[in-house]
C-alpha cells in the first residue's frame, strides 16, 4: 500500500485553499450528519444494538480461527473456492491467476476498499486486463485517475460541473449539445455506458461487507445495484474480503445491518443487501459458474491480541469521517492513504507501518465525535493516542515536526500564502473552540495543549482585523 | 497450496492466545455454541409485529423508500394488475418473468394482448416480474431467492421490477425472514446462489450527495400484494 501521509501537512494546506474541494466538502457536513442523527434517534434500541454488535464482534475476534475454518468449509460445501492471502502481493497474485484461468480481458468491479488497499486495478492493468469500476463514484474517480476520498462516497470531493467535464471528455459517442448539468443526467449517462461493460466482462470482482460463517455466504451492501450486476453477469465471481469480516449467524448479520446503513447514510436499510452462496446451480439460468472468495490478512492478524484489536470491529460505515472536523476541513486525499479520517488514522499505521503513517494519528483534534458516532464503539481517539506514543518511542516525531516547520518556513517566505493559511486556520480553530472558545487539543501542537487549554481564535486573523479597522477609519 | 492458509490461521491462533482469548478447545466449543444457538441478538420492539400489523408496517416502510404497492385479492388477479401498471406507466404490454409455477395461475388468459416471455433477462426487457419468498415489515424489504423460477437478472436489468408478494409471507423482523430462508434451504442447509434483500428502487448519491433514483438497477419497484388488506395504513 502506497502511503503519502508524510505530506499530510502540505496537502492539508493545499486542500484548504482549494475552492472546488471546499464547496464539495460542504456536502459531507450538510448531508451525512443530520441523516445519521435522525436515523439513530428513530430507533429506540439503537444504543443497545451498538452494545450487542460490539459483543458479537468481540466474540468473533476471540474465536476468529475457528469461524474462518467453518466459513471455508461451508463455501466449499456450496461449490465455491476459498483462497488465503497473507498480504497484498498474494492477494493480487491469486486474483490475477483466477482472471488468467478465465481468459479474462475485462473485469467489472463492485465498490471495494480492499481492492484499493491491495492496488488491484494497477496490477491487472499491468497484465493487460482492464478493470472497470461500476459504482458511480468509483467510475468517476477512475475516469479522473484519482483514488477514493471517502470510504463510502468515493467522489465526495467533486462537484457536478467537474463530473460533467469528465463525462464530456470521455463519453465521446454522445451528442455534444446534450444537457448534462444535473445529477440525474449524469447518472443516466453513466448507467448507459456501464450497462454494456457488465455484459462484456469475463470476471466480476466485489468486496464483502460480511462473511456469514454458518452458511459460507458473502454479503454486499449497496444502493446502486452495480455490485449485483457485477457478480451476476460475468462467468466468474471473485469476492475479496479481509479476515475480520466474519459474523457467525444470520441473526448476528441482522443486528449489525441495523447499524450499518443508519450510521453510513441515515437509511434504515440500504437498497440492496445481497447474500451470495456458491456458484450458480445446475438448474439456474443465470449467475456465475465459478465463485471464489479471497480471504486477505494483510496485517490484521498482527493486531489481534494487541491494544489495537478493537479496530478490527470496524464495519467501514464512514460515520467517523463524516463527523470529523479535520476531514471536513481537508477532505480525504490529504491523508495520503487508502483509508482517510479517524479510522484511517488508526488503521493505516497498522497496515503500512508506523514509519510510513506514524503521524496520521496526529491529524485529529481529539474532539471525540468519531468515537461518539462509531456504531462499533471503537475508541478511535484512544487508539490514535496509542499510536502517537509508539511513534514517540520510535523517534519518528522529530521528522514529522521537521516537515511541519519547513512548511511554516515556506509559507513565511510567501506572505500571501501565509496570510491565507492563517485565515483558514483561524476559522477552523475558531469553529473547533466551540462556544467555550477554548481548545483543549490543538492539531499538531499537542505539546502546547496537553497541559493547558488554548483560547480559540475569534475567527479572524490579526491582519484581517487590522485591515477592517483601517477601513472603518476611512471616511 | 494451503501454506498461506495455515500460516494465517496459526498467526490468528497465536495472537488471540497471547491476548486474553480462550485456548483452542474452548474457542471451538464457544463458536459451536453460538452457531447452534442461532440466538436472536436484539430484536427492536417496533419490529416485533405480525399479521395485519406487519402488513401495515411493511406498506408504510416500503412506500417510504419509493416502492409502490398494489393490493389484489388473489393470484388470479395479478395479470390484470400488471396490465394496469403498464398502462399507467405508458409502457408496452410486455413483460418477462421466471418460470415460477405460482405465476402460471396469474390470469394471463384474460390479457390476450400482453406479451409474456419466460426466462432470465438479457437486458432488453423493460419490465421484469418476480415472486418474493418473503418480506420484512421492519424496513419494507423484499426477499427474493435465485433459482430457475426467479432468475436474478430479472431483479436488476429491467427498468421496472414488479414483485408478487403474498401478504401471509410478511414477517416483522429481519432475522425471522433470514432464518426462514436458511430453514427452507433444506437439510444440507445450502442457500440459493443469491438471496436478495431489496429495499426500494436502485439509487445513487454519488454526485453532490443528492439522491437520484434509477442507478444501475431498476428505476421503479412495484409490489403486487396478494391477500388481506391491511386494517390500517
Ligand atoms: S471506525 Fe467506526 S465509525 Fe469509522 S468506519 Fe469503522 S465502524 Fe464506522
From TrEMBL, chain A:
Pfam families: Fer4_8 (PF13183), LUD_dom (PF02589), LutB_C (PF11870). Keywords: 4Fe-4S, Electron transport, Iron, Iron-sulfur, Metal-binding, Repeat, Transport. The keyword Signal does not apply. This is Iron-sulfur cluster-binding protein. One of its GO terms (molecular function) is metal ion binding. GO terms for biological process: lactate metabolic process. NCBIfam families: LutB/LldF family L-lactate oxidation iron-sulfur protein. InterPro entries: 4Fe4S_Fe-S-bd (IPR017896), 4Fe4S_Fe_S_CS (IPR017900), FTHF_cligase-like_sf (IPR024185), Helical_ferredxn (IPR009051), LUD_dom (IPR003741), LutB/LldF (IPR004452), LutB_C (IPR024569), NagB/RpiA_transferase-like (IPR037171). Signal peptide: none annotated. Residues 304-335 form the 4Fe-4S ferredoxin-type domain.
From TrEMBL, chain B:
SUPFAM superfamilies: NagB/RpiA/CoA transferase-like. It holds the Pfam family LUD_dom. Gene3D superfamilies: NagB/RpiA/CoA transferase-like (3.40.50.10420). InterPro entries: FTHF_cligase-like_sf, LUD_dom, NagB/RpiA_transferase-like. Residues 53-226 form the LUD domain. PANTHER family: LACTATE UTILIZATION PROTEIN C. This is LUD domain-containing protein.
Amino acid at each position: 500500500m502506497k502511503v503519502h501521509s508524510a505530506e499530510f501537512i502540505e496537502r492539508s494546506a493545499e486542500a484548504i485553499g482549494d475552492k472546488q474541494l471546499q464547496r464539495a466538502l460542504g456536502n459531507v457536513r450538510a448531508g451525512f450528519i443530520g441523516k445519521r442523527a435522525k436515523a439513530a434517534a428513530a430507533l429506540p434500541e439503537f444504543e443497545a444494538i451498538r452494545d450487542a454488535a460490539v459483543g458479537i464482534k468481540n466474540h468473533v475476534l476471540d474465536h476468529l480461527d475457528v469461524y474462518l475454518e467453518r466459513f471455508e468449509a461451508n463455501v466449499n460445501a456450496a461449490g465455491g473456492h476459498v483462497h488465503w492471502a497473507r498480504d497484498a502481493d498474494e492477494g493480487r497474485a491469486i486474483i490475477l491467476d483466477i482472471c488468467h484461468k478465465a481468459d479474462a480481458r475485462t473485469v467489472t468491479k463492485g465498490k471495494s476498499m480492499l481492492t484499493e488497499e491491495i492496488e488491484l486495478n494497477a496490477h491487472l492493468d499491468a497484465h493487460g486486463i482492464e478493470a472497470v469500476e461500476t459504482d458511480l463514484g468509483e467510475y468517476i474517480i477512475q475516469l479522473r485517475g484519482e483514488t477514493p476520498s471517502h470510504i463510502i462516497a468515493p467522489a465526495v470531493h467533486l462537484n457536478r460541473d467537474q463530473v460533467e467535464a469528465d463525462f464530456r471528455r470521455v463519453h465521446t459517442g454522445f451528442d455534444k449539445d446534450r444537457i448534462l448539468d444535473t445529477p440525474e443526467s449524469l447518472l443516466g449517462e453513466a448507467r448507459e455506458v456501464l450497462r454494456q461493460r457488465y455484459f462484456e466482462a469475463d470476471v466480476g470482482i466485489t468486496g464483502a461487507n460480511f462473511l456469514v460463517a454458518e452458511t459460507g455466504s458473502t454479503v454486499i451492501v449497496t444502493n446502486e445495484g452495480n455490485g449485483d450486476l457485477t457478480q451476476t453477469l460475468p462467468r466468474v465471481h471473485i469476492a475479496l474480503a479481509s479476515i475480520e469480516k466474519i459474523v457467525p449467524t444470520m441473526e448476528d448479520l441482522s443486528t449489525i445491518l441495523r447499524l450499518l446503513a443508519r450510521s453510513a447514510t441515515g437509511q434504515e436499510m440500504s437498497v440492496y443487501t445481497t447474500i451470495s452462496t456458491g456458484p450458480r446451480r445446475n438448474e439456474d439460468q443465470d449467475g456465475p459458474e465459478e465463485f471464489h472468495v479471497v480471504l486477505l490478512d494483510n496485517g490484521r492478524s498482527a493486531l489481534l491480541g494487541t491494544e489495537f484489536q478493537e479496530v478490527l470491529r470496524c464495519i467501514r460505515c464512514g460515520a467517523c469521517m463524516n463527523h470529523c472536523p479535520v476531514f471536513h476541513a481537508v477532505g480525504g486525499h490529504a491523508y495520503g492513504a487508502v483509508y482517510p479520517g479517524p479510522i484511517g488514522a488508526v488503521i493505516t499505521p497498522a497496515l503500512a507501518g508506523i514509519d510510513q503513517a506514524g503521524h496520521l494519528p496526529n491529524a485529529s483534534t481529539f474532539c471525540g465525535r468519531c468515537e461518539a458516532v462509531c456504531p462499533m464503539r471503537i475508541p478511535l481517539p484512544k487508539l490514535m493516542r496509542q499510536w502517537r506514543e509508539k511513534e514517540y518511542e520510535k523517534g519518528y516525531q522529530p521528522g514529522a515536526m521537521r516537515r511541519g516547520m519547513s512548511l511554516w518556513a515556506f509559507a513565511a517566505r510567501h506572505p500571501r500564502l501565509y496570510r491565507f493559511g492563517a485565515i483558514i486556520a483561524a476559522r477552523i480553530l475558531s469553529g473547533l473552540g466551540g462556544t467555550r472558545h477554548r481548545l483543549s487539543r490543538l492539531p499538531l501542537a499537542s505539546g502546547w495543549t496537553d497541559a493547558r487549554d488554548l483560547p480559540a481564535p475569534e475567527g479572524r486573523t490579526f491582519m484581517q482585523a487590522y485591515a477592517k479597522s483601517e477601513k472603518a477609519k476611512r471616511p | 497450496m494451503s501454506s498461506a492458509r495455515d500460516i494465517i490461521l496459526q498467526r490468528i491462533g497465536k495472537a488471540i492466545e497471547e491476548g486474553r482469548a480462550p485456548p483452542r478447545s474452548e474457542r471451538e466449543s464457544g463458536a459451536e455454541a453460538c452457531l447452534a444457538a442461532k440466538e436472536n441478538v436484539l430484536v427492536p420492539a417496533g419490529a416485533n409485529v405480525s399479521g395485519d400489523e406487519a402488513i401495515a408496517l411493511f406498506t408504510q416502510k416500503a412506500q417510504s423508500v419509493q416502492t409502490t404497492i398494489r393490493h389484489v385479492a388473489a393470484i388470479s388477479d395479478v395479470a390484470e394488475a400488471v396490465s394496469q401498471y403498464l398502462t399507467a406507466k405508458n409502457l408496452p404490454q410486455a413483460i418477462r418473468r421466471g418460470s415460477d409455477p405460482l405465476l402460471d395461475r396469474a390470469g394471463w388468459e384474460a390479457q390476450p394482448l400482453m406479451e409474456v416471455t419466460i426466462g432470465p433477462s438479457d437486458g432488453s426487457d423493460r419490465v421484469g416480474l418476480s415472486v418474493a419468498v418473503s418480506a420484512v415489515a421492519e424496513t419494507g424489504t423484499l426477499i427474493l431467492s435465485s433459482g430457475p423460477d426467479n432468475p436474478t437478472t430479472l431483479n436488476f436489468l429491467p427498468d421496472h421490477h414488479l414483485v408478487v408478494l403474498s401478504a401471509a409471507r410478511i414477517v416483522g423482523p429481519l432475522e425471522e425472514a433470514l432464518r426462514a430462508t436458511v430453514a427452507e434451504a433444506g437439510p444440507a442447509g445450502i442457500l440459493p446462489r443469491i438471496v436478495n434483500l431489496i429495499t426500494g428502487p436502485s439509487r445513487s448519491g454519488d454526485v453532490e450527495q443528492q439522491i437520484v433514483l434509477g442507478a444501475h438497477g431498476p428505476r421503479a419497484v412495484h409490489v403486487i400484494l396478494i391477500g388481506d388488506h391491511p386494517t390500517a395504513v
